[in-house]
Design goal:
23% of the residues lie in helices and 33% in strands. By secondary structure, the protein is α+β, with helices and mostly antiparallel strands. The termini are far apart.
Length: 174
Amino acid sequence: MPLIFNGKTVAVAKRSFLPRWNDGAVDVYVGKEKVFSLWEDAFDLPLFFYPFADGRRFLCNYDFDTAILVFIVDLNASGTNESDLSKWPSDDQFRTDLARMASNVVLETKGVVRLPSFAELQGVSSYLASATPRQIKNASFPFCDFGVYRNYATKKDLLLDLATNRQSYWPLAK
């Protein structure tokens, strides 16, 4: 699956064509170089990728079975300046848990795994709000894949996952 920003392929995410029942990985390549992988099995998998304009940061929306994770894989050598990072989500324990779980699902990274800043969340949310269903599907892996029948996360669900006021491991509409 190509990861596209403004019509340009920034990276490519690759996974097995067959549904996984055992441990596997989704590999992300920039050019021919594998820059990170995400663990997957039948119940834990990436749902959506967003490559940022710099081609060095990737927002990942991940179904971790016990939580929906939203995190950044940042390939910048120095990482992002800590003063630029927000306190998302606002609850310290919740934020610590999400960061810990995110670091457990990213494998073989050439960067750092961190939670997104408010500006990053708002940028991706703006993109999603104006994206067509096809654009969202093209940046997503199915969470239910039976070959012919595939089910993808909806725009509404992805926007709930990215909410700046998120307070739940499983953000659900009320």
